[in-house]
Design a protein that fits this description.
It is found in: Golgi apparatus. By secondary structure, the protein is α+β, with helices and mostly antiparallel strands. About 35% of the residues lie in helices and about 25% in strands. Strands 37, 38, 40, 42, 44, 45 and 46 form a 7-stranded mixed beta sheet that branches. α27 (about 885-895) packs antiparallel against α28.
């Protein structure tokens, strides 16, 4: 703040210089400076008695107070104050204030420190070349320190800050300074400010390199529209009159600053007339401007005022500015309407404002056209800009000079209690933005060659600010771009001149040591940085202040959202290429100054804007930045050079803000295979594990220790164990990003994060590992990373794992209401538990953790587990995985399998496991076990396993879960944790023996010794004719015949194999393993196929249509209807084939072994016959034992004819011709139902065609009917007989066939299948009775 030459009220401001006089930090000093301007910037000033009587004598309203307008600043323009001491009395500091932070003062010895501070303040101002000026030390927020007269004590935190003493001293100091200036005016001659070149010649010095003559030879920043000077030099007597008018005007300005507005107005009227008579346009213009300020202050304070006649314009003058005259002409009608003494004061002031400003500008322009005594162009330029700013303020309030406009010019008057006795203005000015913008641009056009770079940049900044208020963003942008293009050459030239004066090299490195302690250069850099920031905002680029990220002071999400919104606005609106060009110009200006902070900020901003993709996927990306890779490298090197230069100056805190807020794309815990995966379990999980080796574990029951189960809830860490995390870092640029240090940030229990350094490749998202050690048990949250990128500030990066794409914006209005959502953030929640044991596989019997097997071959191996720690593993459980089981489980999970196929998959999972643990038995054998084990601390233990070769097996995994319970299992409560080790064995399985096809053949029953004995006994009449009721077991136990099993065996191995087929006899006892008997042996050469025949007893199944069971316990439910879409007949056929196939697989085993070996162990194994046995309906007929058996016997009708009958076999008889015989038909019921049957007999000639076979009238006769009912019915397991008398009349072969049919049909009641229509079942004799008649 301080003296603001561009403020419309600049002549009325009191310049207060504030200096740090003692213990105070820069941040605290700035806060106190802001408090002073806010609290005591405007101070009400009561009028004295003399002033009141003078006002009453003149008939003006004088009962209202005036005000003192203080402006507090921390610096002064010491290089120019002496030349403007009388023309602008307040440009130099009028009051000096020293600021001290009272909270840092010691309780003892503070008086001496305050005296030193007061002396330091006076010495500093005297060194600045000022006249004797009031000074005071202000102590803020002092505690336990008594107040003294040497300083003013203020407490900013309390409601009553006790500002009365400070206000009283400031008022007195302002009056004292004003009186001293008035005394000087009476004793000295008053001269106009002179240009630098003239003052140098008057002092006898040579022109400086930055003089007007030198500046005129430099390249101008803005095209010049000046013209040749045609003014006539003033006469000597005019100079005397000008000095007199100057004294009057200077004294009036002092009175104006002292708050004597009415007196100042009167003196300014006199001074204006004197200056006009003395032909002094500079003092005339200054007087008119002072009168305008007095009128504005009167209007603001609500005081009545009279507009002097001198304020009304008379002629257009000699101004070359067409803009101000266009404004005056546009408002000429309004000015004529409200001109007069009876008009409203505010309306009259508003109406005459354009004309008065035009007159003042004309006079200032004339004053600058002198030869050697012309007014400096900087003063003319400042005056024109502040007058144009006054019109801009009025236009912002709809062309009215109302209370709001006056408050905007002066300040709020609510706390001062000034009355509002003036009527509101009714005169609205016509102020076009085009005219005002032209007026602002013309203000600096003619003065550009004579202004220093610092002054020119400041004026440019103010002009652009006013253009922004006029909402001329496009014109402001073009104007700023033109300025930025011309600034670097001028700055470089000025740097060369300054370097020559300072005897240093003009390069940046040469100037570093020189400018490090130059406060003027620092202020210049700050002002230029403000101008560049205005240019950035004009082109809708991100505000640098909003992009700054101060760690540990702001919420990372808020800052990231703000920066993301800024990036989105850059890409959606405007031309991105033009915006990048503006940023490049800002970098050039900062480098030319040189301004290290500005260079770093704008280069970082270019890298921030140039990204095309905010979030990258894992891997590389095709969204290249908007600038080339060479330029990206050049910018990164520029940031590095600027940071190094700042460090050489001793400022190591100047760094860049990293341009990517989404550096961390994901963090996951890396689970080391050697350490073991941690899994939580409840006490109920222990009840699902077996503790005995004899208990059989169902693989379909839920296994809480399965390796595929994903743990719910937080991930588990172990206290004092190193945890490794996978961190994905992204780099959206095409250059390498060097991360000097990066570590994890955690919340919760103590966590010692280790620091790492990485390099992220160009345009990619890469994974790195970071480590840390949890020091306490409890909940741990990983919330992000703290990273220090090279040449950038260290900051915190939140984990943003989600992807983000910019929304589709169709209209520009949508951008204003757009709400930007951040990508999905991630917080990795972990749980730290107490120390656990760590087992490791120290050795194994497998050489390379791989094995080659043949199909059906078994391989045994051992693992040695070591517990090197001090914590015993009292719970060690084993579970298994393999590639075949995973495929089978996936197939089983589809729920689309037929019941037979589902059973087959379940059977393979349950009974043919690819890997299992085995334990030795006392008899020397080995068996599978699932019992838990234990490994004591600092011991080793061996465990044996067996792998079964199966087609498709490529990998077998042993999962070892272990934990330390510390108590019996039944006492475990809550949650416990296990570790898991995965031991993977790579398996290669080759083929051994394949069964390409199979078949079942029925064979005729041959005569045996038992049958002969039975025939002889029956022939002798010893056989019992009673009904057999042996029951089902007797029926199963009797000889039901045999069939022939045909198997084609093909060798798939490269050496000969010896194959043995073994069968087991049916056993009705469920205890003990079956007894296997070798049936057939053969030798297969490589690729050879051999057909084998094996006798197999026919099979009886009581219910071949029973539902196909499920080995999964959850699927064994009652009243479940089959989900199969097959028809009833197809479903029954499928079930029948299933049950007979199961019986065949139970009674058959095929083993193979290598015939010849060159050394070592001969491979051997067992074929999985289930994959080669498939039964067709004809095969089932050959295997099946019918539920109702029909057999024949032939007995003599008379006992004496017994020698005429011969039994040749089962169902074959030989009898004499013309002998009476009895044909016995035995019907046996093997079902569980009572049957009422109808027996049909059909005699015929053997071995004849059907037409001839039935011609029996003269060859074969019988007594009785061929179709009869078995009246008593047949009980389950009962055998009944039916007799038919026959006589063979001619020799030959005859056969009698039998068919048994149910009398009444019954509806099928088959479990799991909807029954069909009622039908009668029929059974046929397996072979008819063959009777041969002989002589």
């Amino acid at each position: 703040m301080g003296y603001d030459p561009f403020s419309p009220l600049a002549p009325a401001l009191i310049n207060v210089l504030c200096l740090p006089a003692g213990r105070v930090t820069p941040r605290t000093f700035d806060s106190y400076l802001t408090w002073l301007q806010t609290s005591v910037g405007i101070v009400a000033q009561p009028l004295s008695k003399e002033q009141k009587s003078q006002s009453d004598h003149k008939g003006t309203e004088s009962s209202h107070d005036s005000a003192l307008l203080f402006r507090f600043s921390s610096h002064s323009n010491a290089s120019f104050v002496q030349r403007t001491a009388f023309f602008e009395p307040n440009r130099q500091p009028q009051i000096v204030v020293g600021i001290i932070d009272g909270s840092s003062l010691p309780s003892e010895g503070f008086e001496a420190e305050l005296r030193q501070a007061q002396s330091r303040v006076k010495q500093v101002f005297e060194q600045a070349g000022g006249i004797e000026t009031p000074s005071k030390v202000i102590v803020f927020d002092a505690t336990n320190i008594p107040s003294t007269t040497d300083a003013v004590f203020i407490r900013t935190e309390s409601a009553n800050s006790n500002t009365g003493g400070l206000i009283e001293w400031l008022s007195g100091a302002a009056a004292s300074t004003g009186n001293r200036v008035l005394d000087v005016l009476h004793s000295q001659e008053v001269e106009l400010p002179q240009s630098v070149s003239r003052s140098a010649r008057l002092n006898g010095a040579e022109p400086r390199p930055d003089s007007r003559a030198e500046d005129s030879r430099r390249q101008s920043i803005i095209p010049s529209f000046g013209r040749t000077n045609t003014e006539t030099p003033p006469a000597p007597e005019d100079q005397i009159y000008a000095s007199t008018s100057g004294k009057i005007v200077s004294a009036a300005l002092v009175k104006l600053q002292m708050g004597h507005w009415t007196e100042a107005l009167d003196r300014l009227v006199d001074g204006a007339r004197a200056a006009r008579d003395a032909n002094s346009p500079a003092w005339h213009a200054k007087a008119l401007e002072g009168m305008l300020v007095c009128l504005l202050l009167h209007a603001w304070a609500g005081r009545e005022f009279q507009i002097p006649q001198d304020c009304y314009p008379t002629t257009r003058g000699y101004s070359s500015s067409s803009a101000i005259h266009s404004i005056a002409d546009a408002n000429r009608v309004i000015a004529e309407k409200f001109t007069g003494t009876n008009t409203n004061r505010l309306s009259g002031l508003t109406a005459m404002l354009p004309g008065l400003i035009a007159t003042i500008m004309n006079l200032y322009e004339r004053s600058a056209m002198g030869f050697d005594n012309g007014l400096p162009q900087i003063l003319v330029c400042e005056a024109r800009v502040r007058l144009a700013a006054l019109l801009v303020t009025v236009r912002r309030h709809e062309g009215l000079l109302n209370a709001a406009a006056l408050d905007a010019l002066v300040g709020s008057r609510q706390e001062l209690n000034f009355p509002s006795s003036l009527e509101p203005s009714s005169a609205g000015l016509v102020l076009r933005s085009s005219n005002l913008s032209s007026l602002l641009v013309e203000s600096i056009t003619e003065a550009q060659a004579q202004l220093s770079i610092q002054a020119a940049s400041t004026i440019y900044f103010v002009i652009c600010q006013n253009l922004a208020e006029l909402q001329l963003e496009r014109k402001q942008g073009f104007y700023l771009k033109d300025i930025l293009q011309k600034l670097p050459p001028a700055l470089i030239e000025a740097r060369k001149v300054g370097a020559a004066e300072a005897a240093v090299h003009p390069s940046i490195n040469g100037l570093n040591a020189f400018i490090s302690g130059n406060k003027g250069h620092t202020r210049l850099a700050q002002g230029m940085r403000t101008l560049l920031q205005l240019a950035v905002q004009a082109y809708e680029l991100p505000d640098l202040s909003k992009l700054q990220h101060e760690p540990d002071t702001e919420d990372d999400h808020v800052v990231t959202k703000t920066r993301l919104s800024s990036w989105l606005s850059v890409f959606i609106s405007g031309d991105i290429a033009t915006k990048l060009e503006i940023l490049r110009l800002c970098v050039r200006v900062s480098d030319a100054l040189p301004d290290l902070i500005g260079s770093i900020q704008f280069m970082s901003l270019i890298l921030f804007v140039t990204r095309q993709q905010i979030t990258l996927f894992h891997g590389s990306s095709n969204a290249v930045p908007l600038i080339a890779a060479e330029e990206q490298t050049r910018l990164a090197n520029g940031i590095s050079n600027a940071v190094i230069a700042a460090q050489r100056q001793g400022n190591s805190k100047i760094l860049a803000n990293y341009w990517d807020d989404f550096l961390v794309r994901g963090i996951e815990l890396y689970e080391s295979p050697s350490a073991g995966k941690l899994m939580p379990h409840s006490s109920k999980d222990l009840s699902l594990t077996t503790t005995s080796g004899t208990s059989k574990k169902d693989p379909f029951i839920y296994n809480p220790f399965s390796g595929d189960r994903k743990a719910s809830g937080p991930i588990i860490l172990v206290k004092d164990e190193v945890a490794t995390f996978d961190v994905v870092l992204q780099n959206p640029l095409e250059i390498d990003i060097e991360v000097e240090s990066i570590s994890l940030i955690s919340d919760g229990c103590a966590f010692a994060a280790q620091t790492h350094s990485v390099v992220v490749g160009p345009l990619a998202a890469q994974a790195f590992t970071l480590q840390g050690v949890p020091k306490e048990s409890g909940t741990l949250k990983i919330i992000g990373c703290k990273a220090k990128i090279k040449n950038c500030y260290e900051r915190t990066f939140t984990i943003y794992s989600g992807t983000w794409k910019p929304p589709q914006i169709i209209k520009r209005k949508q951008l204003q209401s757009l709400v930007v959502d951040l990508p999905q953030s991630q917080i990795l929640e972990l749980k730290v538990v107490d120390p656990l044991p760590q087992l490791q596989v120290c050795s194994t019997s497998l050489v390379q953790r791989s094995v080659m097997l043949l199909d059906g071959e078994k391989c045994k191996f051992s693992l040695i587990l070591e517990n090197p720690g001090s914590i015993p593993a009292d719970l060690v459980l084993f579970s298994y995985q393999d590639s075949v089981s995973r495929q089978l489980q996936d197939a089983l999970a589809t729920k689309d399998l037929q019941p037979a196929d589902s059973y087959e998959v379940q059977y393979q999972l349950m009974h043919r496991q690819a890997i299992k643990r085995i334990t030795p038995e006392p008899n020397g054998t080995q068996k599978s076990t699932r019992s838990a084990a234990a490994v004591e601390a600092q011991t080793k233990k061996t465990f044996d396993f067996e792998i079964l070769g199966k087609p498709g097996l490529t990998e077998a995994v042993v999962l070892i879960d272990y934990a330390h319970l510390g108590k019996p299992r039944n006492e475990i409560e809550g949650t416990f944790y296990t570790r898991q080790i995965r031991f993977v064995v790579n398996v290669t399985v080759n083929g051994s023996v394949d069964i390409p096809r199979c078949g079942v053949l029925s064979i005729p029953e041959t005569t045996t010794a038992s049958s002969r004995n039975e025939a002889e006994a029956q022939t002798n009449g010893k056989a019992s004719t009673a009904i057999t009721t042996n029951g089902e077991n007797a029926a199963k136990g009797q000889d039901q015949g045999q069939c022939l099993l045909q198997l084609d065996l093909r060798s798939l191995w490269q050496t000969p194999l010896s194959v043995t087929i073994e069968t087991s006899s049916p056993s009705f006892s469920t205890d003990g393993p079956p007894t296997w008997t070798p049936a057939t042996s053969t030798t297969l050469l490589p690729t050879q196929t051999s057909r084998t025949l094996t006798l197999l007893p026919r099979i009886y199944i009581s219910d071949p249509h029973a539902p196909i069971p499920s080995l999964t316990p959850s699927n064994n439910r009652q009243f479940v209807v089959s989900a199969s879409k097959l028809s009833l007949e197809a479903e029954l056929a499928t079930r029948e084939a299933f049950w007979y196939r199961e019986e065949v697989c139970k009674r058959l085993r095929i083993r193979w072994k290598e015939k010849y070996t060159s050394g070592g162990r001969a491979r051997e194994g067992e074929i999985d016959i289930r994959k080669g046995i498939r039964l067709s309906p004809r095969m089932i007929d050959a295997l099946r034992v019918e539920h109702v058996q029909v057999s024949f016997d032939l007995l003599p009708a008379r006992e004496e004819d017994g020698d005429k009958f011969v039994r040749n076999g089962k169902g074959e008889f030989e009898v004499k011709r013309n002998v009476f015989a009895r044909l016995i038909v035995r019907v046996q019921n093997l079902t569980q139902d009572d049957l009422k049957l109808l027996l049909r007999l059909q005699p015929s000639l053997a071995d004849q065609s059907h037409s001839l076979a039935m011609d029996l009238s003269k060859k074969f006769v019988w007594s009785g009917v061929l179709q009869r009912v078995i009246k008593a019915g047949v009980k389950p397991g009962q055998t009944v007989e039916s007799e038919l008398g026959i006589v063979c009349l001619a020799m030959g072969a005859y056969q009698v066939n039998a068919t048994v049919e149910e009398i009444r049909g019954r509806k099928r009641e088959i479990e799991g299948v909807n029954g069909g229509d009622a039908e009668r079942r029929i059974w046929h004799a397996r072979r008819p009775a063959l009777i041969r008649a002989v002589e």
